[in-house]
Amino acid sequence: MDELLTLIDTNLDSDEAKRILSAFTFGAEDGDDREISRMTGERYLCDNASGIEIQYDKKGIIKTIFLKREGKDGCSEFSGELPHGLTFQSTAADVRAALGEPSVDQPRYNWLRYDTDQRSCHFSFRDGDGGLNMVTLMAPDQVP
């Protein structure tokens, strides 16, 4: 995941992005590998088998990377490593123990966010067992 973090605010067509993303097979269900949101102009690359989705802008700048658990949005679980030994079974308490106090804690919505000047990392948790549902890596201008 650390390598994926370096892609935030990087052009999708850069050599570094191509090298890192070559580990995945991106393609939309309809066969078009670059889905476009008609309302926002955002574009998406999805590899459901690897549990990863990339959102980028009209200029090809990667803005958000979604790492999903098994079954989230019909995806397989993200197969790469999460930071500090975290897994999709990790709870909010596990994330706090590994990363310290978050920049933002939203217990009502069951998520934590850690911010730096260059990027943010958002952890959302499942209802019930409280394990990780999704990890979202994003540029500061994408933070909700």
Structure in words:
The structure is a single chain. The protein is of the alpha+beta class. It has one domain (2-142): Pathogenesis-related Protein p14a. Helix content is 13%, strand content 28%. It has helices spanning 2-5, 15-21, 92-99, and strands at residues 35-36, 43-47, 52-56, 62-68, 104-106, 111-115, 120-125, 132-138. The longest helix has 8 residues, at 92-99. Residues 29-34 have low confidence and may be disordered.
Question: What key attributes describe this structure?
Answer:
3 helices, globular, Pathogenesis-related Protein p14a, alpha+beta, 144 residues, 13% helix
In short:
The protein has 144 residues and is of the alpha+beta class.
Number of domains: 1
Backbone CA Rg: 15 Å
The number of helical segments is 3
CATH fold label: Pathogenesis-related Protein p14a
CATH class, anyone? Alpha Beta
N-to-C SSE string, H for helix and E for strand = HHEEEEHEEEE
Secondary-structure map with pairings?
Elements (H helix, E strand, L loop, with lengths): L1 H4 L9 H7 L13 E2 L6 E5 L4 E5 L5 E7 L23 H8 L4 E3 L4 E5 L4 E6 L6 E7 L6
Antiparallel strand pairs: 1-2, 2-3, 3-4, 4-8, 5-6, 6-7, 7-8
